[in-house]
Structure prediction request, 364 residues.
Amino acid sequence: MKYKENWSETKERFDAWWKRSSLGRPMLKLVARREQPLEDLEPETPFDVPVDMHLGVVEKIKRLKNVIRSHAYMAESFPALDLNIGPGSLAVYLGSEPIFTCDTVWYKEVVRDWREFGALKYDPENYWWKRHLEHIRQAKSLSHDEFLVNIPDIVENVDILSALRGPQNLCYDLIDEPDLIKDYVRQVDQLYFKYYNSLYDIVKLADGSSSYTAYSVWGTGKTAKVQCDFSALMSPSQFREYVQPSLRSQCRLLDHSIYHLDGPDAIKHVDALMEIEELDALQWTAGAGRPDGGCEMWYPIYDKVKAAGKSLWISIYDGNLQKMTDSADKLVKRYGSEGLYLIFPVMLERDAQDILDKANQEWK
Prediction:
């Protein structure tokens, strides 16, 4: 890529990370503010309505290019464009209506009764599906190899049913209509790749590789983040019954997969997740008001991930540069560099270089 000098090396390091290995140090996401932009920045136009903040392709690309020109993508960071209809656009493709706000998208509940709603079907004429495809194609044509276009956050399994039905109603459904809900999870599984493959075919690079939104991951072939945030409301036995088979099937059809574990209420499912042989890695989100991923209180999660032979994605952002570096140092000493991906916040270029130098010299 034009603004990513070590792209070939970055891809090699991602390949090693997916294989639970490393090329001499952990993977690092280091994006640094330059003292002077590489090129003049373009004037940015305010978004007129919230939907444009998510899908306004031309303006979003302009803003991304300004970031690219004014920041250095060091280590394994890379520039990429997100075009999401919120965290779970599959629900919109299946009949929900999005409610756009400045920072996220909500989904209107549309299922009053599953039997009245009927089977989930692929609708090539769905307004939001057609519009999303159009925006993704436009972004890809305008990227000119200066940045990647990420596969959108379409989401899967029970989370989509929760968006369509509402989480409280779905809690009752799991108890009252278990077989019906299992059937709907299977329907989501069957439809997922109908949508995913169409998006992948647009954004994939010439070598067939792809990147997935939000989590700064690239991989050869079909790559995705998988999740079940609704699992915070489920018992471990329910998770194994409703979600684990779905995830196993999904990961089997992906070339690379990373699970997004969202918040302390989801920790109880780590054991079940580690039983999914097809899953490659785990990403931990501690949640608002809680210590970052470098905190020792989260080590029991990481211990299980490493024991299962999977890779780790850990975000470190609390404190000053010294505190973040110390947190990373402890992680490397405990878990080694193999299969470890450390995510840092945007920082000054000299600070990012200090971390990179330390990684190359000490985090072997």
